[in-house]
Amino acid sequence: MELQPDLSRDELKRFGLTLLQPRDGYRFTLDPLLLCNFVHAGQEQQIADLGTGSGVIALVLARMALQAQVIAFEQDGVAAGLAQQNTVLNGLADRVRVLHEDVLQVRRHLTVSSCDLVVSNPPYHKQGRGRLNPHPGKLAARHETTATLADFLAAAKYLVKPVTGRICLVYHPARLPDLMVEAVVQKLAVVRLRMVHGVPDAPAKVFLAELAKGRRNVQLEVAPPLIVRSDGDSYTDEIRHILTGN
């Protein structure tokens, strides 16, 4: 495949993946890989990825859960087309289906309670909050444009199986109160939480959360913090393992 000049080819060697990404546009960060590690997928049969971007989460989870069918939703046409290219490039087009569709439309494509796992790396900023990026792809990835946090959680609740199913996401700490309130509104239980810090003495950069539908009397598990860099420069052993498997 001849590489288009506006794309880069990047490797995730741990998972045997090659990913095409825009050189000037939204490019995946460490966050999706932290989410995949947090999920620790394996036995799932059907997985949904809400807002897949170039497809990194969907493809990594397909490598982790070898029997799973993964349905990836993406409302941006350019990103959805790139994600589709990446499924073909990595020989996963038979198990990863990319839909150019907003998360508001999940009911058109999947039946209720049909997924073992629903994952998302939703936009961190509310509409009208924070500095708006002029690049459309970056704007949609970082700011709520069509779907809000409530919409993402409603879609995930519709899709996930009760009791045994899991909803996992990576999100910004400033939105943790919003997540907790919305979980109560939608009758979802927050099961597990882990804060991610760039360095040991810095505020959290993101958090990882697991929610469930139909569980009662849940005790929230707050995992030890995940530190990205031990000294501001070198990755910690845990992050190196997440990236390389070693």
Question: How would you sum up this structure, described in words?
Answer:
The protein is of the alpha/beta class and 246 residues long. It has 7 helices and 11 strands. The strands form 2 sheets. Strands 3, 4, 5, 6, 7, 8, 9, 10 and 11 form a 9-stranded mixed beta sheet that branches. The radius of gyration is 17 Å and the shape is globular. Residues 137-144 have low confidence and may be disordered.
- Identify the overall geometry: globular
Q: What is the overall pLDDT average?
A: 91
Radius of gyration based on Cα positions: 17 Å
Distance between the termini: 31 Å
Helix content: 25-40%
Give the amount of beta strand, in percent. Answer: 25-35%
Unreliable spans: 137-144
> Helix count?
7
Structural class: alpha/beta
Total number of strands? 11
The main β sheet shows up as: 9 strands, mixed
Helix-strand topology string? EEHEHEHEEHHEHEEEEH
